[in-house]
Design brief:
By secondary structure, the chain is α+β, with helices and mostly antiparallel strands. It contains 27 helices and 12 strands. β10 (576-578) and β11 form a beta hairpin.
């Protein structure tokens, strides 16, 4: 149901590399790619496809043709192969730690083992049925006033209750040395407002209502079918009041500071003081995000019957708890979230789900794997066993090359004036790069874990995590903070002006210490460039060198940037992800700018790293060709149609084939490298190519 949690920073402020990076248990559909001595799996390409017609297929076509998506996955890709390797290592670790687990261990690794053991004790989980959920449901049943319901919603960051509003702790964009509490819209159980409002998602909406009825029936909630209809009608009204994903991307629009009293006047009908007190923060000031939506949602809350709100809260608790309960709950959860919304055909093996429950899953779009984990504890154990120090040193060297390349590009931008360039360079210099794992381990000494209480462990771990973030709320910003765990196969650009590369992503095909440098520049280097460019994309450019939300552009330069970005948006909006399903160029604009900037920087940095030497030709391919193939190989993969529809509706990332084809056609260097000519599908005249950073 609702998926926001206090550890998640605002989506508009933090940008991540990719979507659909999760993994599940299945036999390999084909043999693993053979990267060879230089890092590219040439056998997976399709030489029969002209690079100028479809560069993504030229680099990946044979693999795409031969590979079937396993039935327990919604996507299969080389990134999934990476995640599978991580999961197998975590499985081995947790099996080892659980073998000698105590009932209530005191050591951190003992707690990891006991947590995993509690999840894997399926016979006990089956015997308990819905019983572990009883305390949460009792709280809902006794919440017979709007004040009591608002108090439960206020605890949604620390427990498994849902909320019609999100509350997020993040760096204050007008006072970047301190934190702020951001209040925004919430309340939707489906991935996006379009699922409620667009006829194309009518089947999913119907299935969702059936799922809600099934959950209420499993917890013996009275009038399950009727209440499910009321719940979906309630959420449809909330969806109609909610902002679109495109509107939410604007950091200026979502920064509306006010006192709690002013919030009450803006959105009367909701007990804000009660809500905030229950979240243990009680701030004097908040930042409202979707300003016009909050009054409407507060009015919906005030008008809804108490019984409907109670049923909504009960269904949220059941949905959030379902993956940790008996088979009936697990199967219902799977049928909607994985199969109905993503097209996955089979439930993942229990050990895979157990690894996710304890280790976490940053890419999850529901609370399973995002709430109540011991992710940073697992990360400490993982990196101690699997992250070599030399990988960190080589990535830091790559970063140095990329920052130099970015500086050179900014200095020579023909469309940007001197005053704006000074500010841009100043901001570039403030970025810090974090590689592998945090410098300071997280303290789990006060977290109580038992080897026979799976759902209780989740709840206590969630409360422990919220206490960590809430406990530092009034203090200075912790600039050493990490939002992703070390075992995460991803990267991000954060509100601290930090580029974070966890250990999990530093493996082939993204990074291989033994691979050809050109391939590493095309994959890892372009990822670094991607994240750096996020600081200067259509939204990141609104933050200055101090991390403050401020317009530091001259009017002429801002106008030139907006015009170029609009052309890129129009290009991507022409791509069809499925027949008649076009990419949303405005929603994906920031990621598309970052992709384009990242690959351009990777090419520049690779060339500069040669220090004037002639690049080696390997396997008949030049250095520039290998950089571009490194990027294309990094996105090798395919999604089920339902997963594509979900991505286009709700994800700021373009489908993977356009993250390749949409980039290369705008790069001047691609044309001579692959002899692309007029008349080929991807060809753009020099005047039509978009050049931003």
């Amino acid at each position: 149901m609702t998926i926001d949690s206090g550890r998640r920073t605002a989506l508009l402020i933090v940008t991540i590399l990719c979507a659909a990076c999760g993994a599940a248990d299945a036999p390999e559909p084909i043999a693993k790619p053979q990267y060879g001595a230089w890092g590219f799996d040439r056998a997976g390409g399709d030489p029969a496809t002209a690079p100028g017609d479809d560069f993504f297929r030229y680099a990946n076509g044979t693999w795409l043709t031969r590979t079937d998506i396993p039935p327990d996955k919604t996507v299969y890709s080389l990134r999934i192969v990476m995640s599978d390797a991580i999961d197998q290592r975590l499985h081995d670790l947790m099996e080892q730690l659980s073998a000698g687990a105590e009932h209530e261990p005191r050591t951190t690794e003992g707690k990891i083992g006991a947590f995993y053991k509690s999840f894997m004790d399926e016979p006990r989980v089956e015997r308990l049925g819905a019983m572990p959920l009883a305390p949460l449901l009792d709280e809902v049943r006794t919440a017979t006033s709007r004040d009591r319901l608002a108090a439960l919603m206020g605890r949604s960051n620390a427990d498994l209750h849902g909320s019609l509003f999100s509350s997020i702790i993040d760096v204050d964009l007008k006072d970047p040395n301190h934190y702020a509490l951001y209040i925004g819209q919430g309340g939707l159980g489906l991935p996006d407002r379009d699922y409620y409002l667009q006829p194309s998602f009518a089947a999913q909406k119907t299935q969702y209502q059936q799922y809600v009825a099934r959950l209420l029936d499993l917890i013996a909630w009275p009038d399950a079918a009727r209440r499910a209809g009321e719940i979906v009608a309630l959420e449809t009204r909330i969806a109609d009041a909610s902002w679109t994903k495109v509107q939410q991307r604007d950091p200026v629009a979502v920064y509306n500071p006010m006192s709690v009293a002013e919030l009450g006047r803006l959105a009367p009908g909701f007990p804000w003081a009660t809500y905030l007190k229950a979240g243990t923060l009680e701030p004097e000031r908040v930042v409202v995000m979707e300003k016009s939506a909050l009054p409407k949602i507060a009015a919906i809350f005030a008008a809804a019957p108490i019984a409907t709100l109670q049923a909504w809260m009960a269904a949220n608790a059941a949905d959030n708890a379902a993956p940790y309960l008996s088979r009936q709950f697990v199967n219902a959860f799977f049928e909607l979230h994985d199969k109905g919304l993503g097209g996955q055909q089979e439930l993942a093996a229990r050990w895979r789900r157990g690894v996710k429950a304890i280790s976490g899953d940053f890419g999850s779009d529901n609370r399973f794997g995002r709430f109540g984990t011991m992710g940073f504890a697992v990360g400490e154990s993982y990196t101690a066993r699997h992250f070599p120090p030399e990988a960190k040193a080589r990535i830091e060297t790559l970063v140095g090359h990329l920052k130099k390349a970015y500086r050179a590009r900014i200095e020579t931008l023909e469309w940007m004036g001197p005053a704006t360039k000074v500010e841009a360079l100043k901001k570039l210099d403030t970025y810090t790069i974090k590689v592998g794992y945090p410098d300071r381990p997280r303290d789990y000494s006060t977290l109580s874990i038992r080897d026979d209480d799976a759902l209780g462990n989740v709840r206590r771990a969630g409360t422990h995590e919220w206490a960590f973030y809430a406990g530092r709320f009034r203090g200075p910003v912790d600039r050493t903070d990490w939002l992703m765990t070390p075992q995460t196969n991803n990267a991000y650009n954060g509100s601290l002006r930090d580029i974070v590369f966890p250990a999990g992503i530093l493996q082939p095909p993204i990074f291989d210490a033994n691979a050809d440098p050109a391939i590493n520049f095309g994959a890892a280097g372009a990822v670094i460039g991607h994240e750096l460019t996020h600081g200067f994309d259509d939204q990141g450019r609104k933050i200055d060198a101090d991390g403050t939300l401020r317009d530091w552009w001259t009017p002429d330069d801002a106008k030139a940037f907006v015009a170029r970005a609009a052309r890129l948006s129009a290009q991507y909006s022409q791509f069809e992800a499925l027949p008649s399903l076009h990419v949303n160029g405005d929603l994906t604009l920031g990621e598309n700018i970052a992709d384009l900037g990242g690959v351009a920087l990777a090419l520049d940095a690779y060339r500069a790293s040669l220090e004037g030497k002639t690049p080696t030709v390997i396997d008949g391919l030049t250095g520039d060709q290998r950089v571009l193939l490194g990027w294309a190989q990094a996105w090798r993969g395919k999604l089920r149609d339902d997963a594509v529809r979900k991505q286009v509706a709700s994800d700021p990332h373009s489908p993977r084939q356009f993250r390749v084809n949409g980039v290369v056609r705008n790069l001047d260097a691609w044309y001579p490298a692959f002899e692309v000519k007029a008349g080929q599908t991807l060809f753009l005249t020099p005047a039509d190519r978009v050049r931003i950073w």
